[in-house]
Design brief:
It is a single chain. The protein is mainly beta. It has one domain. The protein contains two helices and 20 strands. A hairpin with a 7-residue loop joins strand 7 and strand 8. It starts with 15 loop residues before the first strand and ends with a strand. The model has no long low-confidence stretch (mean pLDDT 87).
Length: 331
Amino acid sequence: MTVPAHPFTAGEIRRVLIVPETTYATTPAVGSVATLTYAGDIETFNNTTDEKVTPIYTDGSRSFGTQTRGAQIVGFTWKGFVRDSVDTFGSFLCKYAFGAYDSGTTTATLADALPSFSCQISKRQWDTAGAGAWVYDYNLYNGCKINKLTITGNEPGMALEIEVEVFAQSVAKSTTKAFTGLQALTLGADPSDDTGVPVRWNGASAYNIGGGAVTMYPEKFKVVVNNNIQRSMGILSGNSGGPYCVTTALNEGRREITYEFTQELQDDVFTAAKRAGTAITTVTFVHSGTASGTLTLTNGIFMANDYPTLIQDVNKESVKMMFKTIGHVGE
C-alpha cells in the first residue's frame, strides 16, 4: 500500500465513533452491534496516553543505556460539536458523562457507576500516487469512560462547544478494521456521514432561587461535569503479545457539576442571594437545531465570593454554581 506523501489536512480527521460495552473493556464483536455509533465531530483531538518510558543509566557512558516502560495511562481529549440530526446530546453525552439519558428535568437519577464504551478515532489521506483511493489509519480505544464533560456556550445562536476528557484501558492501531493485541477483533462498519447542523445555543436560560423561574440572557456560559475518575492498574495477558500493564478498572470519584455564566449587571439579585446563602432550585438552558432539548441543573449552591467589580462603564457579573443533579430532555 502506497503511503501518501503529504500531511493530514482539513476534512481528513474523521468523526468520533463508539460502541457500547456490556463488559468493561471488552469491545463487542461484529454482529452483536450492527454498526458504530456517531458521537461527535472533532475540531481538535489530543491523545493524552502516557507510555511511562523511563531511561535507565548504566556504567560505561553518561548517556542512557536502556529503558523501562511502565503501566500505560491511556486516554484522550477531544473538542468539537455534536449534530442535531442524531440524538447525540442525550444518547452519548448525557448517558456516558453522568449516566442519565433523557431522564427529565428535575427527577434525574444519576449513575454511580458510569457505562463504558469503545471508541474509534480515525484519519484518512487520498492516495494519489497509488490506487487513487482513501488510505485509513484507525485507533481503537477500549474501556473508555468520560472523566470530564464541558459544554460551553460562547455566543447565543452559535454551536455549543463540546470538550470531552476520556480515560481508557488501552489503544490499538491498525490500517484496517482488524485489531490484535490486548483484544483480537474486527470493528463493524462506519455509519453514513451525518449532514445535520451543529447543536446550537438559542440564548434563553432561566434560574429559580425560590421565587419561580426567571428568564436570563447570559452572554456566555459553561457547564462542567467532572467525575474525578481514578484508575486501578494491573497486568493482563491479552490475546497476543503482552503482558500488558494497563488500567483494569476506572473508579468514579466525587462528582462535581458546575455552571458558570457571565451577564450584564442589572441588579443585585445574585449578590444578595450569595450573601444570604440562598439555595438554587433550578437552572435551565435550551439548545436547538432541527429539534430542541433542555438541560436542567437542580439543587444548587453558589460557589466562591465572586462579587462583581464595579467600573465606570457597562458593568457585568460572573456567577458560578454547583449542583447535585443534572437532567436532559429532548434532542
